[in-house]
């Protein structure tokens, strides 16, 4: 381990970004200097008092093992039937996201406590539609929307969720869930509530005979399967500057930055249109043929595609936006691309009360079908195609007042991030699979410089 006195290591930086883009966005949309190269985990395995007791790979494991579950012996009969004991002033609750009251309480908890913003000026503008999309996909379990309340007042002070999310990891299909929205009230931090929530959601998921879980975090835990980096593409640079998201790079003026980041008004891809319900079958096939490119991907049924990619009942709420390309002659859908929207509310700013934020989600293109990441010639064709698809998606995003378009270095995004002027962010996202051992998967960042790499990543799954 090298000495880096006064300098931040990548591990520090990864550890600081508590939640996805946030720490990142608050600091600046793009960093001028690359973060330091990977050095070491932030603490020793022994200091992970909770995680060292869990079936997760250790930092010092070498990649010379057989991939698969870590604990494959446990059965439902071994799982406790009662919730874990909790401090006497608190009680477990299962949130009913069909009820306005519970939805409002979840909204309030996440609104006030999910963002680590020192000035408390930015808040996630969650909506009912967003929660319905994120927490109620096909097969969702009421029992996996787990909260903790103060017994006396009923106040919700912590939350964790699981939703079904089956995975393929290097050819192995794995029944799994995605764990997300872990949140503890700011005044109740460092009291070991997070491990309790994690154990309780594990217990409830295990009772359904599911033993693996996908989760992601800016925090470094034992042991990331992959690490991706955020990229941010300003669509409305002037506004981002006014709310404090963007700073003026040396040698630039506001006018030059606006000129550099302005997109054309109209999309260019021939046959580009909004996805319709009747496209679900084709998009389903395209998605499933496409995802074999990646070493980890999400298995989707047609119902899943309808929910996650088409938007299902949430179509009108404008959370997920999906476009397809239809061949003019054959009428066949050859490509699709989607992004989801989760804006920020901005407090205490005289000029703006929100920032529109879009996140690149799933896409697929016939251009890359049957080809593999290592095939250079087909990668060049794909690069060209993805550049035009993502550019058009950003033009659509701009039309609905999105100010910044975010994408990770996952999927094939490294092929277009630099060319389409995504600034590399400070934020890193680590991917984990609970109770599963697998070899490291490339996350689209260069091992030594941490810049976006020139080749695609093996991470095909997108977490919210
Ligand atoms: C993440 C959060 C719930 C952790 O709660 P906390 O009160 O700081 O931590 P606790 O004392 O309860 O628990 C600490 C343990 O949880 C682990 N932990 C912290 N953040 C974690 C995360 N995001 N995922 C899994 N484990 C996490 C710690 O590593 C530690 O375990 P260890 O002793 O093995 O190292 C809390 O900081 C929070 O609500 N943050 C804002 C929302 C957020 O960032 N959520 C996570 C999204 S990925």
Automatic annotation (TrEMBL):
Functional description taken from the UniProt entry: Adds a myristoyl group to the N-terminal glycine residue of certain cellular proteins.
What sequence ranges are listed for the domain Glycylpeptide N-tetradecanoyltransferase N-terminal?
A: 69-228
Q: Does the keyword Transmembrane apply?
A: no
Gene3D superfamilies to which the protein is assigned, alphabetical = 3.40.630.30
Task: Tell me which PROSITE patterns the record gives.
Answer: NMT_1, NMT_2
Q: What is this protein called?
A: Glycylpeptide N-tetradecanoyltransferase
Quaternary state and interactors: Monomer.
Q: Which gene encodes it?
A: NMT1_2
Indicate yes or no for the key word Acyltransferase: yes
State the Gene Ontology terms under molecular function.
Answer: glycylpeptide N-tetradecanoyltransferase activity
E.C. number, please? 2.3.1.97
């Amino acid at each position: 381990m090298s000495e880096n006195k006064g300098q931040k290591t990548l591990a520090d930086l990864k550890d600081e970004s508590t939640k996805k883009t946030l720490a990142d966005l608050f600091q600046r949309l793009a960093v001028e200097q690359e973060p330091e190269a990977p050095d070491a985990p932030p603490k020793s395995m022994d200091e992970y008092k909770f995680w060292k007791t869990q079936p997760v790979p250790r930092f010092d494991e070498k990649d010379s093992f057989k991939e698969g579950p870590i604990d494959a012996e446990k059965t439902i009969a071994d799982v406790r039937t009662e919730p874990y004991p909790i401090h006497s002033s608190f009680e477990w609750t299962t949130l009913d996201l069909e009820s306005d009251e519970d939805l409002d309480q979840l909204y309030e908890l996440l609104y006030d406590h999910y963002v680590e913003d020192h000035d408390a000026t930015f808040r996630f503008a969650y909506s009912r539609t967003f929660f319905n999309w994120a927490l109620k996909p096909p097969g969702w379990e009421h029992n996996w929307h787990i909260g903790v309340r103060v017994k006396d007042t009923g106040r919700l002070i912590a939350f964790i969720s699981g939703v079904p999310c089956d995975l393929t990891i290097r050819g192995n299909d794995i029944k799994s869930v995605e764990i997300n929205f872990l949140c503890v009230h700011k005044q109740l931090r460092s009291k070991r509530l997070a491990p309790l929530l994690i154990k309780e959601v594990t217990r409830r998921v295990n009772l359904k005979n599911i033993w693996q879980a996908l989760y992601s975090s800016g925090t470094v835990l034992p042991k990331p399967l992959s690490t991706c980096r955020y990229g941010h593409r300003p669509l409305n640079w002037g506004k981002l500057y006014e709310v404090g998201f963007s700073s003026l790079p040396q040698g630039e003026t506001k006018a030059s930055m606006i000129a550099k980041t302005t997109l054309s008004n109209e999309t260019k891809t021939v046959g580009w249109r909004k996805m319709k319900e009747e496209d679900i079958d084709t998009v389903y096939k395209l998605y499933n043929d496409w995802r074999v490119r990646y070493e980890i991907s999400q298995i989707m049924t047609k119902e899943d595609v309808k929910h996650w990619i088409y938007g299902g009942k949430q179509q009108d709420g404008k959370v997920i936006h999906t476009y397809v390309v239809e061949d003019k002659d054959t009428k066949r859908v050859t490509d699709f691309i989607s992004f989801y929207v989760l804006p920020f509310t901005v407090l205490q700013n005289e000029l703006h009360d929100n920032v529109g934020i879009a996140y690149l989600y799933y896409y697929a293109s016939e251009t890359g079908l049957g080809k593999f990441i290592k095939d250079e010639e087909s990668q060049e064709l794909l690069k060209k195609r993805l550049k035009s698809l993502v550019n058009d998606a950003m033009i659509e995003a701009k039309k609905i007042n999105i100010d910044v378009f975010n994408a990770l270095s996952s999927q094939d995004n490294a092929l277009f991030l630099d060319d389409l002027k995504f600034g590399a962010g400070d934020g890193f996202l680590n991917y984990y699979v609970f109770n599963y051992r697998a070899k490291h998967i490339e996350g689209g960042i260069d091992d030594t410089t941490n810049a976006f790499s020139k080749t695609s990543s093996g991470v095909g799954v997108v977490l919210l």
